[in-house]
Specification:
Elements: E1 5-8, H1 18-27, E2 33-38, H2 50-56, E3 64-69, H3 77-83, E4 87-91, H4 98-107, E5 111-116, E6 134-138, H5 153-171, E7 176-180, H6 188-194, E8 198-201, H7 203-206, H8 211-226
Parallel strand pairs: 1-8, 2-3, 3-4, 4-5, 5-6, 6-7, 7-8
The protein binds D-xylitol-5-phosphate and zinc ion.
The site of D-xylitol-5-phosphate has 21 residues, from strand 2, strand 8 and helix 7.
């Protein structure tokens, strides 16, 4: 059976009730919480930092997947580790020393990953797979929720899948393949068929407005993946 790990992005949650939103969405079936950090420098928007991560941490035992859209990266890693991140990903272009940033995260006992924008080539993977736990492919340009899925991402997902399957054969190690942006029940099957195992969805899930709605959207998403066979 295909893996379908769903990571709702709290970017589209009700920020005035963030703790409750986090526990509701996990009770509704989420596997991870996706935590989008924006700095109005690397991306043209501003969101949350380690203090907010610390505040929501007691509301769930689900892994919190911290997506850093900040530049520079290294100086803030310890604060996100301390606040309770389980995974930390950052954009290749946002770190002057990608290998060092990956090591900083992993040395803290947190899973580390690289994020690729729609136009970022995959060459950053050439020498770093051994130090990567998760690869995040953006299917929108980072900065905002509610954008449309960029179709050529599917080819990229398939290319990374092929690379990761080969790597697993050689090393026995599994690396997560996550896709972020514009994912909803109507297109998740295509993303899964291309080879993704972890799916971020913000507006599609939180747009449903309440816990029963969140559960319903995630059920539809899982069913679409199951139907692929
Ligand atoms: C975009 C963020 C995404 C975004 C996803 O920069 O990284 O996580 O919130 O939101 P939707 O699912 O609405 O595209
Ligand atoms: Zn994200």
């Amino acid at each position: 059976m295909r893996t379908c790990r769903i990571a709702p992005s709290i970017l589209s949650a009700d920020f005035a009730r963030l703790g409750q939103e986090v526990s509701d969405v996990v009770e509704a079936g989420a596997d991870w919480i996706h935590f989008d950090v924006m700095d109005n420098h690397y991306v043209p928007n501003l969101t949350v930092g380690p203090q907010v991560l610390k505040a929501i941490r007691p509301y769930t035992q689900a892994p919190i997947d911290v997506h850093l859209m900040i530049e520079p990266v290294d100086s803030l890693i310890p604060a996100f580790v301390k606040a309770g991140a389980d995974l930390i990903t950052f954009h290749c272009e946002a770190s002057k020393h990608v290998d060092r940033s990956l090591q900083l995260i992993r040395d803290s006992g947190v899973k580390a990953g690289l994020v690729f924008n729609p136009a970022t080539p995959l060459t950053y993977l050439d020498y770093e797979l051994d130090r990567i736990d998760i690869i995040l492919l953006m299917s929108v340009n980072p900065g905002f929720g509610g954008q449309s899925f960029i179709e050529p991402t599917l080819e990229k997902v398939a290319a990374v899948r092929a690379r990761l399957d080969k790597y697993r054969e050689e090393t026995g190690r599994d690396i997560f393949l996550e896709v972020d942006g514009g994912i909803k029940p109507s297109n998740i099957a295509r993303v899964a068929a291309a080879g993704a195992d972890t799916f971020v969805a913000g507006s599609a899930i939180f747009g449903a407005g309440h816990k029963a709605g969140y559960a319903d959207v995630m059920k539809q998403m899982r069913q679409a993946v199951v139907d692929l066979g």
